[in-house]
Amino acid sequence: MRWRPFTEQYLDSTGVFKDAVISIMATIAKQENIRRSERILAGLARAKREGRRLGRPRVSDSKASRVTLWRRMKEKSS
After folding, report:
1. What is the average pLDDT across 25-52?
2. How far is Cα 15 from Cα 6, in angstroms, rounded to an integer?
3. DSSP states of the chain as a string?
4. Whole domain around residue 37: which residue ranges?
5. Res 34 pLDDT > 80
6. What is the pTM of this model?
7. pLDDT at 16 > cutoff 70
C-alpha cells in the first residue's frame, strides 16, 4: 500500500525510504499505545486509592425491573 499525505511531505511512503517511514510510524504508534495503557492503569489505581467506585451505578431493588429481580432470586436459589 502506498500513500502520500498532502500536508506532511516527509511522510511519503512511495519513495526510496518507504520502509523506514512505515517502520518509524509503527514504532511511534506502538509507543503511544504503551503510554496510553500506562496512563489508564495509573488513573484507575488513583481512583481506587481515592475510594471512587468505577463502573455503572447499582440499581436499588425499588428501581430494578422484574427481570432483574427474577435473575437475582434465581442466582440465590442455585
Report:
1. 95
2. 15
3. -----SS-GGG-SSSTTHHHHHHHHHHHHHHHHHHHHHHHHHHHHHHHHTTPPPSSPPPPTTTS-HHHHHHHHHHHH-
4. 17-52
5. yes
6. 0.54
7. yes
* pLDDT mean over 42-64: 83
The CA distance from 6 to 12, in Å, is 9
User: Domain total for the chain?
Assistant: 1
Query: Could you give the angle at the alpha carbon of 11 between the alpha carbons of 32 and 22, nearest 5°?
Result: 60
- 37 within some domain: yes
Question: Is 12 within the bounds of a domain?
Answer: no
Q: Encode burial over 3-23: b for 16+ CB neighbours within 10 A, e otherwise.
A: eeeeeeeeeebeeeeeeebee
C-alpha grid cell for residue 34? 504503551
Is 28 within a domain?
A: yes
Is 72 contained in some domain?
no
For 9, the grid coordinates are 511531505
